[in-house]
Structures are given as C-alpha cells and as structure tokens.
Amino acid sequence: MRDQIYLDCNATTPAAAEVVESMLPWFSEGFGNPSSSHAYGRVAKDAVERARGQVASLIGCAADEIVFTSGGTESNNLAIFGAAAAATRERRGIVTSVVEHPAVERPCDRLEREGHPVARLSVDGTGRVSAEEAREASNGRTALVTVMLANNETGTIQPIRGLSRIAHEAGALMHTDAAQAVGKIPVRVDDLEVDLLTIAGHKLYAPKGVGALYVRSGTKLRPFALGASHERGLRPGTENVPGIIGLGTACEIAERILAEEWIREEALRDELWALLTAGVPGLRLNGHPTERLPNTLNVSFPGTLGRSVLEKAREVAASTGSACHEGVDTPSSVLTAMGLDAAAALGAVRLSLGRNTTREQIATAARSLIAAWMAAD
Ligand SMILES: Cc1ncc(COP(=O)(O)O)c(C=O)c1O
Fold first, then answer.
1. Are 181 and 187 in contact (CB under 8 A)?
2. Most buried residue, 141, 271, 298, 373, by most Cβ within 10 Å?
3. Tens-digit pLDDT profile for residues 112-166
4. Å from CA of 154 to ligand 1 middle
C-alpha cells in the first residue's frame, strides 16, 4: 500500500499532521461535555466555538451560521429534508441535477416518492447544467434548488451563483453540496449567494465522520433528528469535540495555503494529462476543460475498461466511476448523463491529486498507466 501513488483524493484525504495534533488533547484532558456548565465543559465549548469560527472564516459566513454534523451525507440530508419539511404546503417542489452524489440524489428520490415534484436538470457534454433549464424548472411551487458545486467524479464546477438567483426569484432556497469544493477552490457563501452549503471534513484533510452545514441566518429548516438543543436545535447530540476541532484546524490550514496549493496541483494535473495524452492516442478528457477542480483529471482510456487499466497499474491507487457487481460492469451515471456511450464511460479512470502529490509521482503514475493501457485486453 505504502508503495502505491495515491491519486484518489476525491475519495478521501489523510488527516493533516497539524489536524491530528490539534485533536489529541480533546480525547483526554479536554474530554468535557460542551453542554456542562463547569470548567471542563466550558473549556470544550470554547474550543468548539473557536472551530466554528475557523470553518466560518473559510467560507465567509458568521460563526453562528455553521452547524456541525457527521459529514457530507448528513449535511445534505439535513439541508434537503430540513428545507422540504419547513416549506409551506404550496411549495413542495425540488429542483436538482442528474449528476448529484447519492447523498443528494437519494433524499430527493425519497421526497419524490412522498409526493414532492422533483425536476432533475440535465447536463451538457462537460457536465454542466444550464441556467435556461433551471429557470424553466423553478417556479412559485419550488421549495428548494439543490445542485452540487463541484462534481466528485469529473470535478466540473456548476454555475451556482446563477442558479441561486433563479432559485431566489422563484422564492425557493438554494443549497449546494460543496463537499468536493471546499478547501480546493475559493468558496464564499456570499459570492455563491446560497442559503445552505455542505462541507465534508475528510475531503479537506480533517478526519472522517465530521462535517458542517452552512445555514444562512433566517433560513427555515426543520431538523430530522430530535433531541436536546445542540447546534441551535438543528443537529441534536453531544458534539464530536475532537472531530470538530480537527475540522476547524483543517479549515484554517486550507485558508492559509489554498491559493498556492491550487496552482501547484493544477500544474501537476495538467502535466499528468499531457503525459497521458502523449502515450495514449484517443484518450478522452471527461469534465469541463477549465471550469473544473484543480486536482481532478477524469479520463477515458480507449478500447478497454478503466478497471482493467487500474488492475494492471499496480503503482497507482485511483478509482473508476463505474461499479462492478457479480462480474457485470455498470458505467457511471454521471458520465452517461454527459453523453458518453457505455464503452467510453467504462473506460474512465478518475485521478485526483492532493497536497502530498509530487512531480516524481506524476511521472511514475503516467508511465504506469500508459504501460497498463498498452497491456490491457
Ligand atoms: C460530492 C459529495 N457529496 C457528499 C459526499 C459524502 O460525504 P461524507 O463521506 O462525508 O458523508 C461525498 C463523498 O464522497 C461527495 O463527494
């Protein structure tokens, strides 16, 4: 495992050393319950509030607009079910896209089964939705528009500010799943004009099992879990103090290094693309050529399965968007929605770089992937 080059940072990232270090005291001497009124509790509460400020600072909101959750999935569920439940009887409609993560797609599917009209925006060949279609789908009966900021498979970035304006003109709320974007590109809630925004800790070098939902002040949301009054009543349950502290540290680091790291990773990614296209005639780029996460390169290898390439490229840890169940390969629904035929979609490999990716690794990975493609049947 250690010898493999990790190019799967959209799946998860390692917790940064500084993040782990900041968390450790909160497992032991800082074990207090933030709800307790004695010193143990007060110290833990102060630390949680500091972390809230660090998360808020990264996305440009007020600290009290951050609700800590268990991760991207829960944040998306809270935003979607919460907004749908808080809407009036006349406003039951949901507008979403055909390329959402299952943590958005499946809550929308359930709402549809429960009687909410759901409109799913199509995407073009680069994976982007169109403002025209969003405008046609949004009306006085729309409660929520939920479209991801950046796609996990292709990295394609959606025109969220335009969609927010369309949602608001219709009187609806705007949610964006920014699990893949936060920490990789500048994300500011006022630039995006969103009401709700999802953050997932483990995509930005914080641990797994912690995340946050940005809830714009005044936004009506009904919690789906009931308990005590933690997190303004929106997410009851004793706080995951070490995880929250880790997320805060991760956001502070991201804010510090984002501008520099964005350029570095983008240059390495483009170098990887150049090396691969030189060695694989007919290699196809999946995703938007420019409106794309700086770390993400999704390519389709011609004439073979992405899975076969990765099985042979033993030095590389990456992923395909397709699923293999009982020997049958199913192409990625994101890529087929973009118009790829089954063969091109099954040839896809997602290479996602991170802070630990080096130039030497890129050269080795490219050599390995090219050799694997040549040897593939
Ligand atoms: C776009 C997107 N949304 C949501 C999630 C889910 O986040 P979590 O794993 O923290 O529940 C992921 C993780 O893969 C993701 O890529």
1. yes
2. 298
3. 999 999 999 999 999 999 999 999 999 999 999 999 999 999 999 999 999 999 9
4. 14
Average pLDDT, the chain: 96
* Rounded-to-5 percentages of helix, strand, coil across the chain: 45, 15, 40
Q: How do strand 93-97 and strand 142-146 relate by DSSP bridges?
A: parallel
Evaluate: CB of 147 within 6 angstroms of ligand 1: no
pLDDT, one tens digit per residue, over 243-256 is 999 999 999 999 99
* Best probe residue, ligand 1, of 80, 152, 153 (max atoms within 8 Å of C-beta): 152
Buried b (16+ CB within 10 A) or exposed e, 179-210: bbbbbbbebebeebbbbbbbbbbbbbbbbeeb
- For ligand 1, the distance from its centroid to the CA atom of residue 249, given in whole angstroms, is 20
What are the start-end ranges of the E strands in 168-244?
Answer: 173-177, 196-200, 211-215
DSSP β-bridge partners for residue 185:
182
Sign (positive/negative) of CA torsion 235, 179, 211, 209? positive
Residue identifier of the C-alpha nearest atom 14 of ligand 1: 11
Please determine, for residue 206, whether its predicted confidence score (pLDDT) is greater than 90: yes
Look at the block and give the residue holding tokens 């397709």. Answer: 322
- Over residues 1-52, the pLDDT tens digits come to 668 999 999 999 999 999 999 999 999 999 999 999 999 999 999 999 999 9
More confident residue, 119 or 327: 119
Nearest-angstrom CA–CA distance, 126 and 285: 9
Counting other chains too, the contacts that 29-35 makes at CB distance below 8 Å and 24 or more residues apart are 30/241, 33/238, 34/238, 34/239, 34/241, 35/228, 35/230, 35/238
Residues labelled catalytic: 324
Count CA atoms closer than 13 A to 331's CA, side-chain side: 19
Asked if 296 and 322 touch (Cβ cutoff 8 Å), the reply is no
Beta-bridge partner residues of 351: 297
What angle do the packed helices 359-375 and 241-279 form, to 10 degrees? 60
- Counting ligand 1 atoms within 8 A of each CB, the residue from 154, 177, 210 with the most, and so the one to mutate, is 177
